[in-house]
Design goal:
The chain is built from ten helices and ten strands. It is of the alpha/beta class. The structure holds adenosine-5'-triphosphate and magnesium ion (MG). Magnesium ion binds next to helix 1.
């Protein structure tokens, strides 16, 4: 079988002390949505950082479209087509919405106005608020800025660490709808989610991580139906 479009395979490593990730594998196919869930401190963000090149792996490798990118810096991975929205500090609060999007296009030397228009089509509220400091927006709107910023490089893979953190259920549903829309354009989505049920519902593939290791891996649907996953991770 061909390799998945993006795969972090057998990732082992940490922040210099003891390993946080233990032979952890995450993958996503082209245009699909893969969701990572698991308890606080399970290493979800660490695994995302590892895939994006922010963590030196002791073992394992990362492949993007068949190419080994394990040795590349995060910036080099952006050039290869990866976009990443970290869990925290993912926008510049004192800069306007438009400036945040322009910053997102930092690697581009071409005209990115079309991409900006696409982001505004996806998130119309950002167009209305384009001249406001991003820090003045609501939580859900700030997450839209963060996702929009990452889209400005026209990534092939979009990695999102808890895009719906701290937003209301209605705003969460809206964000998930937009994320599905992005995936339908052919962009692969690899995302960490605290809202496990709702996220697994839209996931082609789901990963349950516990203590830095893969505990369950299956389609989103199968994980939702698995009694043990339900009891242990989805609250029954
Ligand atoms: N920069 C860091 N330096 C050292 N240890 C860290 C660092 N960041 C995280 N850790 C540790 O790594 C482990 C996994 O943390 P991580 O943030 O990856 O978990 P998580 O699954 O994303 O949790 P949450 O659901 O709270 O976001 C924790 O024990 C945490 O204390
Ligand atoms: Mg985290």
């Amino acid at each position: 079988m061909a390799d998945p479009f993006l795969i972090g395979a057998g990732m082992t490593g940490g922040y210099g002390g003891a390993d946080i990730l233990h032979d952890c594998t995450l993958a996503v196919e082209k245009g699909e949505i893969a969701v990572i869930v698991g308890p606080n401190g399970a290493g979800k963000s660490t695994a995302m950082k590892a895939v994006f090149g922010m963590l030196k792996l002791r073992q394992g490798h990362v492949l993007l479209d068949g190419e080994d990118i394990t040795a590349l810096s995060p910036q080099a991975r952006v050039h290869k087509g990866m976009g990443f929205v970290p869990q925290t500090h993912n926008i510049f609060g004192s800069m306007t919405v438009a400036e945040n999007l322009e910053m997102g296009a930092f690697i581009r030397r071409d005209d990115f106005r079309d991409t900006m228009a696409q982001v505004y089509d996806l998130f119309p509220i950002l167009k209305d608020k384009r001249n406001q400091p991003a820090g003045e927006l609501s939580g859900g709107q700030r997450q839209q800025v963060a996702v929009g910023r990452a889209l400005m490089t026209q990534p092939k893979v979009l990695m999102l660490d808890e895009p719906t953190a701290g937003v209301s259920p209605i705003v969460m549903d809206e964000l998930f709808d937009r994320i599905i829309e992005v995936a339908r354009t052919g962009i692969s989505i690899l995302m960490v989610e605290q809202n496990a049920r709702q996220a697994l519902e839209i996931a082609d593939k789901g990963y349950v991580l516990v203590q830095g290791a893969n505990r369950f891996t299956d389609t989103g649907k199968a994980l939702m139906a698995d009694p043990e996953v339900r009891r242990t991770f989805l609250g029954g």
